[in-house]
Amino acid sequence: MSAATSPIGKNGGGLAETVVAWARRNIWTIGLVGLLVAFLAITKLIQPNYGAPAIQGLAISILPIAFAAVAQAIVVISGGIDLSVGSVMALASVTSAVLMKDQGDLFGVAVVLGVLLLGLTVGAINGGLIVATKVPDIVVTLAMSFVWAGAALLILNTPGGGAAPWLMAIISGPLGSEWLPKALIVLAVIVAVVWLPLRRSTLGLTLYAVGSSPLAAFRSGVAVGPTKIVAYALTGFFAALGGLALTASGGVGAPVPGSYTLQSVAAIVLGGVSLAGGRGGVLGPIIAVIVLALVRTDLTFLGVDPNLSTAIQGAILIGVVMFGSVVAMRKVRA
Amino acid sequence: MTDTAGSAGTAGAPRSPSLIDGGWRRMIRDRPLIPLVILLVVLVAVLELAKPGTVNGNWAATTIRTAIPLAILAACQTLTMLTGGIDLSVGAVASMAAFLMATQATAQGPVVALVIAFAAAAIAGVVNGVGIGVFKVHPLIMTLGMSLVVLGLMSVYQLVMVQSGILIPDAIQWLGSGISLGFVPNSIVVFVPLGILIVIGLRRSGFGRLLFAVGDNSVAARLAGTRVWQVLLALYILSAMLAAVAGILIAGLLNNATVSLVEQSVLPSVAAAVIGGTSIMGGRGGYSGTIVGALILTILTTLLTVLEMPEAVRQVLFGAIIVAVAAAYTRVTGET
Fold first, then answer.
1. How many CA atoms are closer than 13 Å to the CA of A109, on its beta-carbon side?
2. How far apart (Å, rounded) are the C-alpha atoms in residues A325 and B222?
3. Complex-level ipTM
């Protein structure tokens, strides 16, 4: 990079240079925010009635996918990939719905904590298997997606169960201003409380280190295996949150994984997380989820067949990745 | 089975224990067919024990008939995995071919319908190949995205064509579901030449060797003068065409065609290739193991049905077996 010409930027150009350097580092996320604003404007243009209630609906509908995207982002940053995210979400969703049906509030809280623990355990099993068997992550998590989906079906064969009223209330409606949906706040708070301190910690640093080069991390004294297991456990934790969000937004548990795994991979790629590992964050993927949801909304407003919007989503995914790789290739040449 | 390329790829691995107890390990690594066939025989024996009288000529024919489309889909995975890729769009492409064939057959006749189906599959293959070969998109992402595109477009097409209905031509039905002489499935006619072509082609043809070379070390292959993007383009077109063949056979077998007909076979097709000893990291594997892998998965499904396991238990066991088999391979071959 050309920025390397002034490696000591602190006493170089002062504030302006620092800002430029920061912007250069976060160029992808900044671009995404721009895209988000553009799409919000387009949506408002197409549908002048688009206002606070629609934003609230949007926030609730993206919550499960947003958690799935965060889950996927963490594991991909650490150099892996988890194709069982959707199945773990289904498992968490049915477990919570079956246990919470017709129970008290306090029991509901216990269930939520239990399901999060379940997610951690399930993720740790995924990671443990990958580390212990040395089988590629794609194969292990693909196979485990069968296992967890099967387990979900064993618990609940058809959509059913119920959600505790407080769990549904926690994500529906606005807080304070009508433009501030509770679902978005829940997402922001959880990510801020769990991910931000983690990223600042040694553990966060090792996650990125293992993702960018396992060998270099190993030679620097990082315990690569345990770090991977932790990454998968965190992924399981966020997938379980996604499952809880499914239960909370639908009011019932859904045993079929749906296309959440696919959507989570799409979101992280759009969100600037490198599939090679070691690069990206969780903010980009979350914004990407919102952008993708807005694209779907706009297409619906325009009267486009919802099936065609699936195709368009796929095309966007491919297009963005191609764009990213072209940029990367030019950078190598320059 | 992977005579030159396979052993050349692992010979330098320092972790494989040499000479001392390397004999049986090397056998499993270089000839995974032997333990796989043993596993197959054991499964058949268990099936016969579980429900005496199951194993007969007709059973063999229906098993092979079910396994053939899976084996062809698994060929897509085997070939792409040899180069370190994967093709998750086979389900969408195969369903597309089957559905196009079935809807166009009513108005255009079977021959034109088949041409349309294969042409559409080829286009999907070209897009995959260009994305992966030229733009260097990760195969997993490219083919996942492609499956979304194909599925979406076909759903739109389905609404347009809702009037026409579907027709599976008699010849396709005969090919997909017919059984001759009481124990020979007709789809053998398609599969035997195809299978021989792939097995021999991988070992003997230049293209086959290029696949191993690209998968083993694509930089080295490029420096040695291989146009890697051309190899990948040809590979993903081939994969899409094979998927189309499988989709049309499945349409004939089930006498039905929908836009998501083959979707549920995608994960088993990856599983068959993995069980057959092809490494998802590229450079090691072959098609004969994959064929046995497809047979093993088919018989396993029958066995679990005979034992009256619910669908959920079947899924759990499927997943567990894939992990176990893949783990056994990695342990034996000492690869990571």
1. 2
2. 19
3. 0.79
Q: Which residues in B lie closer than 8 A to residue A305 (C-beta atoms)?
A: 155-156, 159
Provide the number of structural domains found in chain B: 1
pTM for the whole structure: 0.81
Asked whether the beta carbons of residue A275 and residue B147 sit closer than 8 angstroms, the reply is: no
pLDDT number for residue B17: 46
Vertex B232 angle, CA B228 and B236, to 5°: 175
- Domains in chain A: boundaries: 30-43+50-333
Cβ neighbour number for residue A293 with a 10 Å cutoff? 19
Contact list, A153 vs chain B (CB under 8 Å): 310-312, 315
Provide the pLDDT confidence category of residue B14 given band limits of 50, 70 and 90: very low
**Candidate from B137, B156, B335 with C-beta closest to A322:** B137
Residues A260-303 pLDDT 10s: 887 888 888 888 888 888 888 888 899 999 988 888 888 888 87
Q: How many Å apart are CA B212 and CA B226, to the nearest integer? A: 12
CATH number, domain with residue B136? 1.10.3470
Query: How many C-beta atoms lie closer than 10 Å to residue A83's C-beta?
Result: 25
Residue ranges in chain A assigned as alpha helix (H): 15-25, 27-46, 52-77, 85-100, 105-133, 137-155, 165-171, 182-200, 202-212, 214-219, 224-250, 260-270, 283-301, 306-333
Chain A residues in contact with B152 by the CB 8 A cut-off are: 307-314
> Are B316 and A154 inside 8 Å of each other by CB?
yes
> Cα torsion for B103, B73, A265, A252, to the nearest 10°?
70
For residue A89, the cross-strand partners are none
Q: Which residues pair with A139 in a beta bridge?
A: none
Residue of chain B with shortest Cα separation from A265: B141
- C-beta of residue B280 within 8 angstroms of C-beta of residue B333: no
Percent of chain A with pLDDT over 70: 94
A35: left (phi > 0), else alpha (psi -120 to 50), else beta?
A: alpha
| pLDDT, greater one: A115 or A167 | A115
Tell which residue, A266, A231, A287, has the closest CA to residue A86.
Answer: A266
Asked if A142 has any chain B CB less than 8 Å from its own CB, the reply is yes
Shortest distance, CA B267 to any CA of chain A (angstroms): 8
Comparing CA positions, the residue from B298, B270, B317 lying closest to residue B64 is B298
Q: Give the structural domain span for B64.
A: 3-333
What DSSP letter does each residue of A227-252 carry, written as one string?
A: HHHHHHHHHHHHHHHHHHHHHHHHSS
B93 has a pLDDT exceeding 60: yes
Residue range A30-43+50-333 in CATH 1.10.3470: yes
